[in-house]
Amino acid sequence: MKTFSPRLSDIDRQWYLVDAQDQILGRLAAQIANRLRGKHKPEFAPHMDNGDFVVVINCEKIRVTGTKLQDKMYYRHSGWVGGLKATSLADMLASKPEEVLRKAVRGMLPKNRLGRAMLKKLKIYAGAEHPHAAQSPKPLTFEK
């Protein structure tokens, strides 16, 4: 019996619409990462990008548990001495809510060029409007 390995012609990509309102950040990111990677499909192969496109709306209304709004910090460094910058989750949600979810999903994808290609299929919007109506994304709901 031969092992099935999907080809590029076997990939059928769908578009899904996720409403992030009142969803918990980490749980939502894990579900989105599985969709982007294609692990929900029976023809999943870890060496191929056969996942779906995911459009996320209302990411400014995402929730976190506990005291993460004040305690969770995002760090970046300029490369110079003393160039470490820290931003709290509350400040990031106020200024760039899309980046909070993007960073959470990015941490759950492979750390190589395949993971970067998967991340390009994620479209995140702070409000309820999105420009992907022509693709007619199917609504996708996750348990809270």
In N-to-C order, the SSE pattern is EHEHEEHHHEE
Number of helices: 5
At CATH's second level, what is the architecture?
A: Alpha-Beta Complex
Strand-residue proportion: 15-25%
Structural class per helix/strand content? alpha/beta
CATH homologous superfamily descriptor: Ribosomal protein L13
Q: How many whole angstroms does the radius of gyration measure?
A: 17 Å
Assembly status: single chain
What is the averaged pLDDT score?
95
Please give the share of residues in helix.
Answer: 25-40%
Strands, total number: 6
Query: How are the strands of the biggest sheet laid out side by side?
Result: 5-2-1-6
Quote the CATH topology: Ribosomal Protein L13p, Chain: A
Question: Stretches where pLDDT falls below 50 for ≥5 residues?
Answer: none
Report the biggest beta sheet as strand number plus sense, adding barrel if it closes: 4 strands, parallel
Please give the alpha-carbon distance between the first and last residues: 41 Å
